[in-house]
Amino acid sequence: MIPPRLQLTGIAAGYKDLQVLKDISLTVRPGEFVSILGPSGAGKSTLFRLFTGTLKPTHGEILYDGLPLEAASSPFAFMPQRDALMPWRRIIDNATLGLEVQGMSRREARTRVEPLLSEFGLSGFEQQYPAALSGGMRQRAALLRTVVQNRSMLLLDEPFGALDALTRAGMHRFVEAMWMRRRWTAMLVTHDVREAVHLSDRIYVLSPRPATLIQVIDIPLTRPRLRNGAAGAEAAAIENAILETLLAPQEGQLP
Ligand SMILES: Nc1ncnc2c1ncn2[C@@H]1O[C@H](COP(=O)(O)OP(=O)(O)OP(=O)(O)O)[C@@H](O)[C@H]1O
């Protein structure tokens, strides 16, 4: 049997005296889109620091393709909260940046990126600077820069949080369509319940810090996840159930 791509068992982690993650176990299988949903400060970004090796867990185990994570060589492509495009580089040169950082020549990197520009809705804009593009286009360029690195798993750290609601909804549709074509293995961290339900095969809901899992929910809805009819009602019911869990007063807290 194929081992999970990523498996966390009993992970605890933090900074000096601050325990951030208390007991996190989760699984991402190849081709799955999994989300981590939680209140602000629960430790979603801390979790990503464990994956990128900038922080070590104090307890627990992280396996990648069945082996300790340290044995995997750069398995993740990371997309940060803001688009993090370099304002002085043209879109094409921003899109090639991740490959260039890996040591590929700019010329070769362009050969890799150019055929993908139209799929990402960026044809004709490759010579523009980021400031000339809309927020959605910039996020698509940042996503292109991430996926073109051909890593075996994508880490998406609240990538749409800064977008207006309409652009964000458009990005959800775009990412969903791309996932259906390419079946990325992906983990998204987000505060946005609707976003998580729209995009995920499974959602792990974190408690406030120190974070434990308070809900694990598989999303059985077929894709594309349209917002009308019975499917829309089912999605809304799942969103409500998750919101109830997130908003339920924690033990010892005032409502
Ligand atoms: N380098 C650090 N040193 C000390 N404390 C830190 C450090 N980085 C984060 N923290 C603290 O750890 C806690 C969790 O931070 P983290 O950034 O992982 O949360 P988050 O869930 O991603 O938050 P948000 O959703 O608001 O981005 C916060 O209380 C934060 O202040």
From TrEMBL:
Any one GO MF annotation of this record: ATP binding
Keywords: ATP-binding, Nucleotide-binding, Transport
Highest rank taxon of the organism: Bacteria
Pfam families referenced in this protein's UniProt entry, alphabetically: ABC_tran
Classification via SUPFAM superfamilies: P-loop containing nucleoside triphosphate hydrolases (SSF52540)
Span of domain ABC transporter: 6-233
Classification via InterPro entries: AAA+_ATPase (IPR003593), ABC_transporter-like_ATP-bd (IPR003439), ABC_transporter-like_CS (IPR017871), ABC_transporter_ATP-bind (IPR050166), P-loop_NTPase (IPR027417)
PANTHER family: ABC TRANSPORTER ATP-BINDING PROTEIN, TAURINE IMPORT ATP-BINDING PROTEIN-RELATED
Name of the protein: ABC transporter ATP-binding protein
Species whose genome carries this gene: Ferranicluibacter rubi
